[in-house]
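Collaborator request, handled under Task 6.
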Amino acid sequence: MVMILGGLILRSLETGAITEGETPFWWAIVTMTTVGYGDYAPSTSEGRIFAVLVMFAGISLTAMFTAVISSIFVAKRIREDKGLEKVNVKNHIILCGWNRNADKIIDSIQYLSEGRRKDLVLINDLDEETVARLKTRYRDIHLHFVAGDYTSEQILQRASLEDADTIIIIPSDVDASIQNPDEKTILATLTIKGLEPNKRLIAYLYSRDNLTHIKRANADEVVISDDFGAYMLASHVVDPGIPQILNRLLDNVSENRFKRVDIPSEFVGQSFNNLFDHFRNNNGSLLIGVFSEEENLGIGEVLSADSSALDAFIERKLKEGGVSLQEESKISTVINPNKNYIIKDGERAIIIP
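Structure tokens returned to the collaborator:
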């Protein structure tokens, strides 16, 4: 509007080349933006006074435009820091909940990624200062934050659930009002699997009593809080030496930790013994087993919520029929098989370097 009005008014105040054709409009836009080519200039007093007004109008509009654009970006950044903005990432990991072990989980993901920067989206109720500290600490991970309840569909969509690769749910100790954290974990699993049933979901439980419920919610993997700890304590008493070895095998910074590797295609159809010799002779690694991912019929998908004689009868008959009721994992593992075990297509190897 300033350009059009300025051109029309200048045409009425001036004479000569500056008033011809589109020239007055060209002069107005050049003057407004303070470019000032100097190819055309008003010659009358009235024209020069009007030019000053156009200059101030241009400066004001430019400043206003810059302020509006800046405020948009600043507001967006503030909303991102507060976890109120949608995260636009793909093939990322979503970590729902927060407790004292969450730092260790992120640290392990960062180390085990071996230089490949992953996008990790946190969904919890942490304060901005804590989130900022985490982003500074874990610079090798693209850390994003969404504030809110991870059982809410809206919050999950803000974390780009539909484009996620894996979802991890851990019990949250941030909210003191939660009496049984496992119940929220189960509810979140039901919500996520209802929205995206094919997404890989790993759930962490405090109590084994809730295992049937979480498997019925269709969690792909379940980690129980005290299983490993109880075994380690007993081993320190009964089998000293085993806990120390396990610590090294499971330590993410240990050179001798468990690693999964691809099996060379030429060994598919060959014996486990040949593959064992291959790893041992090539780099000194010790092959301890193979694994493959498959769909198992979990007992939680068959039985009712309450144990009963009918449930026991169904479980017994399915086992007699050779139906796998494995609850622990949908990953099929074979540890130290017979040397004549034949390697199948799709299997991967677990080694100790």
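The cover message to the collaborator said: "Residues 271 and 283 are 19 Å apart (CA to CA). The first helix runs from residue 2 to 13. Please let us know whether this matches your experimental observations."
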